[in-house]
Amino acid sequence: MGLEKLHPFDAGKWGKVINFLKEEKLIGDDLIVQAREATDEDLLVVHTRRYLNKLKWSFVVATITEIPPVLFLPNFLVQRKVLKPLRTQTGGTIMAGKLAVDRGWAINVGGGFHHCSSDKGGGFCAYADITLAIKFLFERVPGVSKATIIDLDAHQGNGHERDFMNDHRVYIMDAYNRYIYPGDGFAKRAIKRKVELEWGTEDTEYLQKVHTHVEGALNELKPDIIVYNAGTDILDGDPLGGLAISPQGIVKRDEVVFKAARSRGIPILMVTSGGYQKRTARIIADSILNLHNLGLIDKELATSEAESPKVDQMIRDSVTDLTNLTCSDG
Fold first, then answer.
1. Cβ within 8 Å of residue 41, ≥6 positions away
2. Which pairing describes strands 225-229 and 147-151: parallel, antiparallel, or unpaired?
3. Which of 6, 229, 187 is nearest to 96 (CA)?
4. Which pLDDT score is estimated for 34?
5. What angle, rounded to 10 degrees, do the helices at 129-140 and 84-103 form?
């Protein structure tokens, strides 16, 4: 519908990441777990019925997505063209949480809607996928009772912060440009490790702070799952982020986080969140390739050669488990 022309977000970036990884022979269609759209029942694990009903009004969705012309679209079109893709990415984050616990890591090439809380959306975030993934794991996966959110998008993650404000099972580290949206002072009270960055922060200072605080966070509390919000809007030149990190700096940042998680044996779920430049997709793909080349994501799963029945069975088993996870009455 051309809606991407009305917002700085590159709406095609997720598909481009997958295509780049296919070109590099890292993955094939048979090793991609297709996300399933989150149902109302899934969403109600976190969201209020009142909030979900609000999304049936086009002007509410226009406000949340910051795309004013959505206001003039009939809601059935808004549901199909705007909200269904976001629900599918949300379902992907929930599914990836279970995959991460099962195999040690998972990446949802999408998701990271960290401005949305149980009863309020904003900043292009209509569903609270990070909160949902953690709540699903707490309620339905034995042995998962503590989570750490490492939010390295350029913006403060006020949605999950509001949702977990008084929940001592969830430790939040958030590094963000202190001067930009959302500036949510109330939500900041939920951050256990707050890293407020200045305009134009560059690689050396940024990576030193990320390394210090990721290590510090995981030494302070060893969680059962890490949710890593890997926004690429920290990239130099991003129209909204206001930071000055190079493509190589983003790749190194992801490496630092994955090394910290994998060396401690903590499952990690990565979501890709914000990033508003055309070159973002290539950088995300390069980062995933780097994680693969360093052995930080399992080689036997990150391959386009699906001849191994073991790999194929692991994917099938995971999908079966995920169906049970989202359909159970728990």
1. none
2. parallel
3. 229
4. 87
5. 40
Query: How far, in Å, are 8, 93, 116, 120, 294 from residue 291 at the CA level?
Result: 28, 19, 29, 35, 5
**Cα dist from 62 to 8, 80, 155, 170, whole Å:** 14, 14, 20, 31
Peptide bond into 182 cis (omega under 30): yes
How far, in whole angstroms, is CA 91 from its chain's centroid?
11
One DSSP character per residue, 316-329 reads: HHHHHHHHHHHHS-
Length of the chain equals: 330
Amino acid letter, residue 118 = S
φ/ψ bin of 243: left (φ > 0), alpha (ψ from -120 to 50), beta (otherwise):
beta
Q: In which element (H, E) is residue 172 found?
A: strand 170-177
Tell me if residue 211 is catalytic: no
Compute CA 162 distance to the chain's CA centroid, rounded to the nearest angstrom.
Answer: 17
Using CA atoms, how far apart are residues 259 and 291, in angstroms rounded to an integer? 9
Q: Nearest 5°: CA angle at 272, between 140 and 66?
A: 105
How many angstroms separate the Cα of 47 from the Cα of each of 129, 135, 233? 10, 11, 27
Per the rule left: phi > 0, alpha: psi between -120 and 50, beta: everything else, 190 is alpha
Looking at residues 112-130, what average pLDDT do you find? 98
pLDDT tens profile 44-69? 999 999 999 999 999 999 999 999 99
Show Cβ contacts of residue 85 under 8 Å, excluding neighbours closer than 6 positions.
none
Residue 196, SS3 per DSSP: strand
Q: Residue 27 — pLDDT band, cuts 50, 70, 90?
A: confident
Catalytic site residue from 47, 114, 115, 155? 115
pTM, entire model: 0.90
DSSP state at residue 191: -
